[in-house]
Write a structure and sequence with these properties.
This protein is α+β, with helices and mostly antiparallel strands. The protein has a single domain, classed as Maf protein, CATH 3.90.950.10. It has 5 helices and 5 strands; from the N terminus they run H-E-E-H-E-E-H-E-H-H. A 5-stranded antiparallel β-sheet has the order 2-1-3-4-5. Strand 3 and strand 4 form a beta hairpin. The model has no long low-confidence stretch (mean pLDDT 96).
Length: 164
């Protein structure tokens, strides 16, 4: 279920706090409407040189983000929240991974933008969609960069009593 919330996307906000807030907001919105369900919410942002790069709203903005990431290492932060309204369950956690981009020229950026719908992607990219055009290397869990850290998801669902 898609939560109908307004996410905090202030690029000056601490990225860990931003994704934690947004994940909790989404999870709580769904839990309030489905009180007997265990709800998992997540939010991801890209952080480079002291600023969060959220989802671009235009192609020029996406180009600008990719240029900013070119040749640099950035951190992808994912916040997660588990809610079960009927049980009063509230669990929050976060994960991060680092990604280093290749040096990108305009031709590569245009090729990427021609292949991938970037408007719902933090930083204007998705590592799982033609990431080989952009990414030189990464450290940490790939699923964190994709936006749902699998190790952390398993930990949270175990803590919520759904897995053993």
């Amino acid at each position: 279920m898609t939560a109908e919330v307004i996410e905090d996307e202030d690029p000056a906000t601490d990225p860990r706090q931003m994704v934690a807030h947004n994940a909790a907001l989404k999870a709580q919105w769904v839990a309030d409407r489905c009180p007997d369900a265990v709800v998992l919410g997540a939010d991801t942002t890209v952080f480079v040189e002291g600023h969060a790069l959220n989802k671009p709203s235009t192609l020029p903005e996406a180009r600008s983000m990719l240029r900013r990431l070119s040749g640099r290492t950035h951190t992808v932060y994912t916040g997660m929240a588990v809610r079960h309204a009927a049980r009063g369950l509230r669990i929050d956690a976060g994960a991060s991974s680092d990604v280093t981009f290749k040096v990108l020229d305009d031709a590569v950026i245009e090729e990427y933008l021609g292949k991938v719908h970037v408007f719902d992607k933090a930083g204007g990219y998705a590592i799982q969609d033609h990431g080989e055009l952009l990414v030189a290397e990464f450290s940490g869990e790939l699923s964190t960069i994709v936006g749902l850290p699998l190790t952390l998801t398993k930990q949270l669902l175990t803590e919520a009593g759904l897995l053993s």
